[in-house]
TrEMBL record:
GO biological process: actin polymerization or depolymerization
Name of the protein: Putative actin-binding protein Fragmin
Any GO CC annotation of this UniProt entry: actin cytoskeleton
InterPro entries the UniProt entry points to: ADF-H/Gelsolin-like_dom_sf, Gelsolin-like_dom, Gelsolin-like_dom_sf, Villin/Gelsolin
Coiled coil: none
Pfam family, one: Gelsolin
GO molecular function, one term: actin filament binding
Recorded superkingdom: Eukaryota
Gelsolin-like domain boundaries: 63-152, 201-251, 328-392
Length: 397
């Protein structure tokens, strides 16, 4: 008899028969904290105790420390976790005068464009676990390679996105064979979001073909024995400066010649030729290529919603919209969702119910699904009393 034969299946699944009702309960937090306390990646006496920047990459479901010399360099085929801890001054409860320093944490789980679902899921799960390790005091951020937030970009003034990843075969070398150099083409361009700031210049590795060129940007081609810099006819001074920094970093490891070529000069043809464009005249061609980063569509009106179960059922109600939103609109008995135009924040009040806190992710996902232009927005969750500058800047307080 097959093992399933004769079994009677329930007509309707009852969520109360599972542990769903325990989400965000004291037991749930204790179990997650116990798991987090045994994670070697951050159970080292430093994480949660000292300020600093810490990065891990997800490798085969494991959280592996990322080398400090590679900080700011990410691979589009991977998922990463980034923890930024800083000391801030806060007023002691019950006192309007005395101030003390506290450690505020921001956890980003960064998802490369070509990361696997397993890696992305592990990064998200481990982010929650790390937050438990930090006693729920961290602000959690979901970061997409295609639309980095201002807060994430600010951590990495030399942010560089490379192709490949932990499972990539790019570094495979046959036995007894010398490793062959692979041409690398880097694109240096300004963040497409006007609000990202004048210094938001990004570096992305792109396909080494002349079709990747864009006359608005600067490109760096590493040929192994020589490095070429190609300046598009409409590139900005900041992009040129960023390219100089990139080249400087590259030549620290190896001493090679560097040549800078302007698109408007006849010699720039050599750059295009190296990229397979022998039949292309750079003086007569308009180079345009889609950028690897998209600008999230910024809505002009902020909106604040309340998530409440005051009447026994969860509701999602508009509280206020416009630039008049402030601290006074937040109630510590509830959970709020703030659509700040270019970012979405979920704020959890201290007195919010277990059901309200458990539903924040689902509600946020539903909200994003309803907004066609919100898919690339930065998403973050923060708890009352642990807000950082990013949240209050989004509120406008």
């Amino acid at each position: 008899m097959p093992p399933h034969q004769g079994l009677v299946h329930a007509q309707e699944y009852d969520w109360r028969d599972s542990n769903v009702a325990l989400i965000n309960s004291d037991l749930d937090h204790k179990v997650k904290h116990q798991s987090a306390a045994t994670e070697p990646a951050w159970n080292n006496g430093v994480i949660g105790a000292e300020p600093g920047l810490y990065i891990w990459r997800i490798e085969d479901f494991e959280v592996v420390p990322w080398p400090k010399e590679k900080y700011g360099c990410f691979h589009e085929g991977d998922s990463y976790m980034v923890l930024f801890s800083e000391k801030v001054k806060s007023r002691t409860e019950g006192s309007a005068e005395e101030e003390r320093e506290k450690l505020v944490h921001d956890i980003f789980f960064w998802l490369g464009t070509h990361t696997s679902q397993d890696e992305a899921g592990t990064a998200a799960y481990k982010t929650v676990e790390l937050d438990e390790f930090l006693n729920g005091a961290a602000t959690q951020h979901r970061e997409l390679q295609s639309a980095p937030s201002d807060a994430f970009s600010a951590l990495f003034p030399r942010l560089k996105i490379l192709r490949g990843g932990v499972r990539s075969g790019f570094t495979h070398v046959e036995t007894n064979e010398e490793p062959q150099h692979i041409d690398t083409l880097l694109r240096i361009f300004k963040h497409p979001s006007a609000s990202a700031g004048r210094d938001a210049i990004l570096v992305h590795e792109v396909e080494p073909t002349w079709r990747s060129l864009d006359e608005d940007d600067v490109f760096v081609l590493d040929k192994g024995d020589k490095i070429f810099v190609w300046q598009g006819r409409k590139c900005s001074p900041m992009e040129k400066l960023k390219a100089a920094q990139v080249v400087n970093d590259m030549t620290l490891a190896k001493h090679v010649d560097v040549e800078v070529l302007l698109q408007v000069e006849a010699r720039s043809k050599i750059f295009v030729d190296y990229l397979g464009g022998e039949d292309v005249n750079p003086l007569e061609t308009t180079f345009k290529a889609q950028r690897p980063v998209s600008a999230a569509s910024e809505r002009k009106v902020k909106k604040l919603f309340r998530l409440s179960d005051a009447e026994g059922e969860l509701s999602f109600d508009l509280v206020r919209e416009g630039n008049g939103i402030g601290k006074g609109d937040l109630d510590d008995n509830d959970v709020f969702l703030l659509d700040a135009g270019k970012s979405i924040w979920v704020w959890e009040g201290r007195g919010a119910s277990r059901a309200e806190k458990a539903m924040w992710l689902k509600v946020m996902q539903q909200y994003v699904a309803q907004q066609e232009d919100a898919a690339a927005l930065s998403i973050a969750k923060v708890s009352e009393g642990n807000e950082g500058r990013g949240f209050w800047a989004a509120v406008g307080a």
